[in-house]
Design goal:
- The protein is of the alpha+beta class.
- An eight-stranded mixed sheet has the order 1-2-3-4-5-6-8-7, with helices on both faces.
- The model has no long low-confidence stretch (mean pLDDT about 95).
Length: about 180
């Protein structure tokens, strides 16, 4: 059993030319910043991850945060936000934890005005380190639609291995499976 309650509330900050970017475990204090980021990102994120992980109203954001916290307490997944001066730049999630095989999915999104700065790669590198060093996972999987060029660049930069095409895997659409192993 993976005990997600022992994982840190903050990961080491990412150093950028514009200063440090914090990575914090999602919580109620992030409601407004996540909602604003969701509003700025919905059109960009929804085709790949759906609406539940990119909420656009305060009510939906509260529900999203509560659901993600329930997932953490059930040892199902953990979510971190990337924050610069209390502005949410994106989300990273490790979920669908398999306690027997010690595998999980890795997902992420970055708001459009923060894309192209290497933030998705930096966020994923932090989550990969957490997954392998503190969660003792053996494998992370990324499911990416073939048309999602930005995420394909991210997994290539992470050194992920392409394993194949999974038919009808994301919202009834095909997805490429990439793996990252410890």
């Amino acid at each position: 059993m993976i005990d997600l309650s022992i994982l840190p509330a903050r990961l080491p900050p990412i150093r950028t030319e514009q200063g440090p970017i914090n990575i914090e475990r999602i919580g109620a204090k992030h409601t407004e910043s996540l909602c604003e980021a969701g509003q700025a990102s919905a059109q960009h994120v929804k085709p790949w991850l759906g609406a539940s992980l990119c909420p656009v109203t305060l009510a939906a954001t509260k529900h999203c945060i509560e659901a993600l916290e329930k997932s953490r307490h059930a040892n199902y997944g953990i979510t971190y936000l990337m924050l610069k001066d209390n502005k949410c730049l994106g989300m990273g999630i490790i979920n669908y934890l398999h306690p027997l095989h010690l595998t999980a999915n890795l997902g992420y999104w970055i708001r459009p005005d923060a894309c192209g700065q290497g933030l998705a790669v930096a966020l994923c590198q932090s989550l990969i380190k957490l997954a392998f060093s503190q969660m003792n996972l053996h494998r992370l999987e990324c499911f990416i639609e073939p048309n999602n060029k930005a995420s394909l660049r991210v997994v290539h930069k992470l050194g992920a291995e392409k394993e194949g095409l999974c038919r009808k895997r994301i919202f009834g659409r095909d997805a490429l499976l990439y793996s990252i192993t410890a």
